[in-house]
Automatic annotation (TrEMBL):
Source organism of the structure: Patulibacter brassicae
GO molecular function: hydroxymethylpyrimidine kinase activity; phosphomethylpyrimidine kinase activity
Keyword check for Transferase: yes
A Pfam family matched in the record: Phos_pyr_kin
Name the record gives this protein: Bifunctional hydroxymethylpyrimidine kinase/phosphomethylpyrimidine kinase
Gene3D superfamilies, per database record: 3.40.1190.20
Enzyme Commission code(s) on record: 2.7.1.49, 2.7.4.7
Keywords: Kinase, Thiamine biosynthesis, Transferase
Catalysed reaction equations from the record: 4-amino-5-hydroxymethyl-2-methylpyrimidine + ATP = 4-amino-2-methyl-5-(phosphooxymethyl)pyrimidine + ADP + H(+); 4-amino-2-methyl-5-(phosphooxymethyl)pyrimidine + ATP = 4-amino-2-methyl-5-(diphosphooxymethyl)pyrimidine + ADP
NCBIfam families hit by this protein: HMP-P_kinase
InterPro entries: HMP/HMP-P_kinase_dom, PM/HMP-P_kinase-1, Ribokinase-like
TM annotation in the entry: none
Protein encoded by which gene: thiD
Keyword Transferase set for record: yes
């Protein structure tokens, strides 16, 4: 019998020079889940914990070629798409997605604003993100402000998150996972392809370091799908790993929101505990 090969995940995203989010967080999360991480870098940010001072995009041809050459040799078991930045880049990413084997799970984190407040998606790129990428997505993982922006709604109080997830689902992705980092409860809400809802509660860590939480979450989700977990279980692991990464985040680095810290042993522990249905966020570890 042939040995099972290590699952391969591909992140199509942007570099964060501060190391907290983007490609850098994605590769750490892939490593923590025990999969082989690969990357197609679509842009660069000059970024710290307090500001984004410059953004440059990679050429469309180079974006497609990074995906092609990885696919040809290593293959890909799941893809995560992060910050894409501009319309032109989104077109290149859509072209690259055409190269994927049928059925490859695609997790889309519709990154719009940095934890520091900087805008990361060009104002005129919204329609391309919705029209070109959302319909090809297995699961889209907006936070609350991103979910509202996707459907073009202003914030309301209180917000019915399940109704919002339903509205996002109407834009074409198979499933929608609204993350809870921007809500009191830190509960993630997953709307599956069959229309059913799964609530993923967890402890909120108000003093944690959350720069990179969304990237860590969506990359862990992709990694767990690559490992073969069904979506609802993969989402539970991703919520647990991201929550732990926020709790363990580095508050002593930078003047702004510190970077999350995901550790391989913690990820393993989180995965085991989440699968066993434990509340792994109960009880201090440090
Ligand atoms: N303060 C927090 N405490 C616990 N979990 C958190 C916290 N902030 C975010 N998370 C978790 O991290 C993941 C990413 O969520 P979120 O922060 O909403 O994404 P984004 O970084 O895109 O804003 C989710 O699973 C969310 O529940
Ligand atoms: C290059 C890049 N990609 C994504 C984010 C979003 O970060 P977060 O995970 O905190 O939402 C970021 N700040 N920079």
């Amino acid at each position: 019998m042939a040995a099972r090969r290590t699952p391969v995940c591909l992140t199509i995203a942007t570099s964060d020079s501060g190391g907290g989010a983007g490609i850098q967080a994605d590769l750490k999360a892939f490593a923590a889940s025990g999969v082989q991480g690969t990357s197609a870098i679509v842009g660069l940010t000059a970024q710290s914990t307090v500001a984004v001072t410059r953004i440059e995009q990679v050429s469309p041809a180079m974006i497609v070629e990074q995906v092609r050459v990885v696919l040809e040799d290593l293959g890909v078991d799941a893809v995560k798409i992060g910050m894409v930045g501009t319309r032109e880049t989104i077109e290149a990413v859509a072209t690259a997605l055409d190269l994927l084997p049928d059925g490859t799970p695609v997790v889309l984190d519709p990154v719009m604003v940095a934890e520091s407040g900087a805008r990361l998606l060009a104002a005129d790129a919204h329609d391309a993100l919705v029209g070109r990428l959302l319909p090809r997505t297995t699961v889209v993982t907006p936070n609350l402000p991103e979910a509202l922006a996707l459907v073009g709604r202003a914030a309301a109080d209180p917000i019915d998150v399940s109704a919002l997830a339903e509205e996002v689902a109407a834009l074409g992705p198979d499933a929608v996972l609204v993350t809870g980092g921007h809500r009191e409860t830190a509960e993630d809400v997953l709307r599956l392809e069959d229309g059913s809802l799964v609530r993923l509660p967890g402890v909120r860590h108000p003093d944690g370091a959350a720069h990179g939480s969304g990237c860590t979450h969506s990359s862990t989700l992709a990694a767990q799908l690559a490992l073969g977990l069904p979506l609802a279980e993969a989402a539970r692991v991703a919520r647990a790993v991201a929550g732990e990464a926020v709790r363990n985040g580095r508050r002593d680095v930078g003047a702004g929101a510190g970077p999350v810290d995901v550790l391989d042993l913690d990820a393993q522990r989180a995965r085991t505990a989440a699968l066993a249905g434990e509340d792994l966020t109960a009880g201090a570890r440090r």
